[in-house]
Each structure stands twice: as C-alpha cells, then as structure tokens.
Amino acid sequence: MALLETRGRVSGNLVSTAVGFVEEANGSLVVAAGSEDADWALNLRFTARCTATIGERTFACEARELSDEARSAAIRSLILKYGTPAERLGRGPAFLLQPVARET
C-alpha cells in the first residue's frame, strides 16, 4: 500500500489515505478508486498535485486521470496484484501519478 496525501477540495487541508498501487518502470504509480465518490479521487480531480509515500520513500506527484484502454489496463493490473479484494475497482476513476521535482 502507498500513503497518498491530497489537498481536500472543500477544506483545503492535507488529507492522507492508504491506496493500492502498481509501480511502473519509470517510477509512476497507477491507482484506482473503488467508487466514483471516493474522497481522495475527487480531491485529485480538483487538485492534481499530491504526495505519495511507499515505505521510507516520499515524493511529489502530478495526477492524470486515465480513460478508456489505459484505465482498463490499470484496473486489470491492480486486480492481478491485489486479487479479489480489489474486485470493486472499475467503479471509480483511475489515475497515473507521475513523480515531479519539488519546487524550491
């Protein structure tokens, strides 16, 4: 699991949630919500910048919502990684989280 930190679209506060992910060869993460109204996914739609933590590694990301074939491939990869508990995937949005350099 990865810890994903987003900015709340209503409160503006930082919010953390654990999400399943698949890491791409280039370091990007693929994530998907189990429902259309998952707060973290709605937050990413509102503000694409987020922070991901995997183990001891924390990095800034820019989220891009996936559609069509890319979304289907992402959901398939997540289900293959996590198995049947991930069967709700496909009901919500999927994102590619691309690492970005931190601004100074």
Describe the 3D structure.
With 104 residues, the chain is an alpha+beta fold. Helix content is 22%, strand content 38%. It is built from two helices and seven strands; from the N terminus they run E-E-E-E-H-E-E-H-E. A seven-stranded antiparallel beta sheet has the order 2-1-5-6-7-4-3. Strand 1 (2-7) and strand 2 form a beta hairpin. The model has no long low-confidence stretch (mean pLDDT 92).
Keyword list:
104 residues, alpha+beta, seven-stranded antiparallel sheet, 2 helices
Total helix count? 2
Widest beta sheet: strand line-up:
2-1-5-6-7-4-3
Give the structural class. Answer: alpha+beta
Question: Termini separation (Å)?
Answer: 28 Å
Molecular shape:
globular
* Largest sheet data: 7 strands, antiparallel
The topology string of helices and strands comes to EEEEHEEHE
DSSP strand tally: 7
Radius of gyration: 13 Å
The helix content, as a percent range, equals: 10-25%
β-sheet strand percentage: 35-45%
Overall mean confidence score, pLDDT: 92
Low-confidence stretches: none
Provide a quick synopsis of the model.
The protein has helices at 39-46, 68-82, and strands at residues 2-7, 14-19, 22-23, 29-32, 49-54, 57-65, 94-99. With 104 residues, the chain is an alpha+beta fold.
